[in-house]
Each structure stands twice: as structure tokens, then as C-alpha cells.
């Protein structure tokens, strides 16, 4: 709802972010003005939000992260010893857990960095920034490590092929054309094999991302 969205932005600025002085919040508070989108766009620039005005979900998420960070900064002594409910009574959680699990996924800088990397590597956007980071890691490991680049740069040495052992299946009436057709058919088969290999790699990459979905029984579905 547009009105609720605007009220939400005003509440965040008034209560948590407080980037503007009180006297400078008039345009943002005037939620019924036709010029409110312009005021909101200026506000996003002023708080250095990396998203565009059309990207509302990402913008809301980023502003909430900023508000939480500022709230913590104002009350560091109150929150510094707090422990997430899921981490209580788990002394060895950090030892065997996946390294990525210790990242602060709500940090606006982290989200902006992941989004920039995803755009650079042309990776599909996802609502969960940690999922996008895992996809980036898989791509880097599979394609961009020095070993992977060196392997891809290696020239392939062809093996001699006895054309007379391969049946063409038709006759052009010309021995030279028959031989050319046999070569083209073998090259086509090689291209099909390479395509199948790439398809298999894509399937493996997707499975690696979605193989461990988080289950939320409250929503009655798998995934976040």
C-alpha cells in the first residue's frame, strides 16, 4: 500500500535513522504530496542507498539494515552481550559451521557489495543475499580460480581419426564431399558433447544453491 509505504519511510527517518534535522523532514513527511517520490529519491541519495527508487524491496531491506546498525550504535552497551536465540547453548557452533554463516547479512555494506558482485558476474538476483553470495563463490571456484583459468586456456590436442571407419549414412556422389560431410558430422557430435557438459555443470551449480533449503513451518513451505 502506497500510503503505508510512505508512512513507514517517515517513521524510519523520524525514529531510527534521523539523517535529517527535524526542520528538514517536511518534504518527506508530506506523504500526500505529488512530489513525494522526488523527496524520497533525494533522501535515498542523501543516505547513500545503492538502489534505485523502483527497487522498493531492496530499498526497504537496506534502510532497515541501516536503522538496525544505527540503533545498535546508539545502544552498543545494551546489545553487545546479546546472543541470538538460535545460538544459545551451542558452544561448538562456530567450529563446524560453514564460514559464510558468520557473516552479518543485514549489514547494508555487505548487501551492496554482494549486489555489485552479482551484477558484475551477471548472476541472477535473489531475495536472500547469502544465497547470492554462495552462487558467486561457486562461480569463482569453478571459473575464476587460477587453476580453472589455466585449465580453460590449455590448447586441446586433437586425436587422429580414421574417416573410413565412420559411416556417413548417405552418398553425395563425390568422394571429396563425402569426406567433408564426415568431418562436419564429427565436429557436430563434439559440439553436442560440449553442450551436454555445460548443461550438466549448470545443473550441478543450481543444485548446489538449492540443495539445502531452509524450512519455515509457519509459512507452510520450504525456502525463504
What's this model, at a glance?
By secondary structure, the protein is mainly alpha-helical. It is built from ten helices and two strands; from the N terminus they run H-H-H-H-H-H-H-H-H-H-E-E.
How would you explain this protein's 3D organization?
InterPro entries: RTRAF. It comes from Balearica regulorum gibbericeps (East African grey crowned-crane). There is one protein chain. With 224 residues, this protein is an all-alpha fold. The protein has helices at residues 2-17, 26-29, 36-46, 56-74, 76-79, 93-96, 108-121, 129-144, 146-153, 175-210; strands at residues 215-216, 221-222. The protein has ten helices and two strands; from the N terminus they run H-H-H-H-H-H-H-H-H-H-E-E. Helix 7 (108-121) packs across helix 8. The mean pLDDT is 79.
Through-space gap between termini: 22 Å
Q: Helix fraction? A: 55-70%
The rough form would be described as elongated
Report the C-alpha radius of gyration, rounded.
Answer: 28 Å
Major pleated sheet: 2 strands, antiparallel
Structural class: mainly alpha
SS element count, helices:
10
| Element string (H = helix, E = strand) | HHHHHHHHHHEE
Number of individual domains: 3
Widest beta sheet: strand line-up:
1-2
Number of strands: 2
Unreliable spans are none
Strand content: under 5%
Mean pLDDT: 79
Pfam family, one: RLL
Family: Belongs to the RTRAF family.
Protein name: RNA transcription, translation and transport factor protein
How is this fold's topology laid out?
Layout: H1 2-17, H2 26-29, H3 36-46, H4 56-74, H5 76-79, H6 93-96, H7 108-121, H8 129-144, H9 146-153, H10 175-210, E1 215-216, E2 221-222
Antiparallel strand pairs: 1-2
